Amino acid sequence: MSTKLIITSYNNKLISAKYVDDEIKSLTVCDNEHNISDIFIGRVENVVKSINACFIEFSNKQKGYYAFSENKDHIFLNNKNNDLPNIGDKILVQVKNPPHKTKPHTLSSKLEIPYKYLVLSRDVNGVLVSKKIKNDENVSNWAASLAYELKLMNEELVRELGADFKDTRSKLSYGFIIRSNAVNANLTELMDEAKHLHNTYKEILKIAIHGLFYTKVYESLPSYITEVSHLVAEEDFELVTDNKEAFSLIKNNCNLSDTRLRFYEDRLLPLYSLYSIKHNIDEALRRQVWLKSGAYLVIDETEALTVVDVNSGKFVPKKGKDKDLSNYNVNIEAARATLTQLRLRNISGIIIVDFINMKDESLNEDLLKYLKMEAKDDEVGVRIVDMTKLGLVEITRTKQGQTLKERMGLERNEELRD
């Protein structure tokens, strides 16, 4: 299986596109206009007991939602005589999710700082190993060594900063997650990285305790760095970019050899045209998507749900006994295209798909089986619920960030203009 990641600019947005065996699998807008994963000194503006949460202003006129049920260990930067956020409190928060529709940013005290092989996390005790690493004796031994070093580093943190945070009632300790691509590393590299992350976290706390409201104390690396870190362990992986800044950041932060990282230069043929990224984005922003059979999809996003209508279009089904079978073949093509479009558009929530009608119940059952099998390829959780008596297929997809249209600065029913 060959995986290729293309990073290029299109329509004033930095885009990463992942291809597996030359088939488009994901489109990501990498511009961090919503400060995702950045860490700020916030001010508690409003406490709403009825929803067990508060709203925190973390940047000039930008507020975020902070749920008490999700955040148990707050990092207060002012003296406290209780353990809960109160209006006016100075608090350290990380931006986790962008605003969506009428909802503000989601904020968290579970600070995370990712790097090549490790993730420093306040939500982890000790050292955890990625579930993708199966029965690796070396990694298990490294985890034990790292756990001992972690204990010493947390003790050092308390010694150096304990006095500053003494009256804030804040817990400072953290843990590590060993990432899947650590199988390509060695213990020395992991220890060096652990010290780097420890020093980064310590510097964040030092700046924060004396910083002003709304100060950004940590700026995260671009999202494509995380994406590359997940892919670098794959044997047949190549990254191509025409963006100098992206090329430099990847070269310095990801464990990629020169044979797997390529800088593209060709003024006559832009990178987004060479790999059909323009076509893929344009199609993913249109209401209508044509299929090879001549049929087409109509995708309508509403506030409550997304509706996908499969139309026969130019497709002419066979007559008689073979009509159901020919409709089934088109429905299979439409099912695959629907799941691809949900993934590329990053559509979440409830999705209703109206396939071409088939009288044969066994073919309907086969269609559902195919959908469930194909849905496993989506890294975001997709559930094929059932087919209703009216022949409508119900699908749910876990929300993860904004839709492609939102990231491209378009309204729900607006299309990209040339």
TrEMBL record:
Record GO terms (molecular function): hydrolase activity; metal ion binding; RNA binding; RNA nuclease activity
Pfam families listed in its UniProt record: RNase_E_G
All copies of domain S1 motif, residue ranges: 37-110
UniProt keyword terms in alphabetical order: Hydrolase, Magnesium, Metal-binding, RNA-binding
A cellular component annotation (GO) from this entry: cytoplasm
Required cofactor(s): Mg(2+)
Spans traversing the lipid bilayer: none
GO BP, sorted A to Z: rRNA processing
PANTHER family, alphabetized: RIBONUCLEASE (PTHR30001), RIBONUCLEASE G (PTHR30001:SF0)
Name of the protein described by the UniProt record: Ribonuclease G
Organism: Lachnospira multipara
